[in-house]
Amino acid sequence: MSALEVTFVTSGRTVWSGQAAQVVVPAADGSMGILPQMQPTLAVLGDGQVRIIDADGSVAERTVHGGFVSVDSDRVTIGVDDAELLESDH
Asked: Any transmembrane segments, and where (predicted)?
């Protein structure tokens, strides 16, 4: 099973980096799910939650207000100004 190589960054730090089975982002025109072998994509993000789901089902979730996501050859880059930790994360 292939995996996504995810890099999630703000203007000042790396929020999350590693392999994931799926990523869900708040694209400006609606929620967008990203899976391995997806076509290359560049999208503007709106307000909402970025969810990174790894192979064992663990979920990392942050609230964002704008930014971008780039997908190419199973590499996902998420760039935002700020990413707020949700209460449910540990």
From this structure: none
